[in-house]
Amino acid sequence: MSRASTAVVLVLLAGLGIGVTYLVQHISAPRIAAEQRLIDSRNLLDLLPVERYDNQPLEQPLALENTELANSTLLGGYLATKTGQPSAVLLRSQTLGYEGAIELLIAIDANGKLLGVKTLKQSETPGLGGKIANWPNAWFQLFVGKSRTEPADAGWALKKDQGQFDQLAGATITSRAVINAIHDALRYFDERRQQLIGSSPP
Question: Could you state, in order of their start, the residue ranges of all structural domains in the chain?
Answer without folding.
Answer: 1-45, 52-197
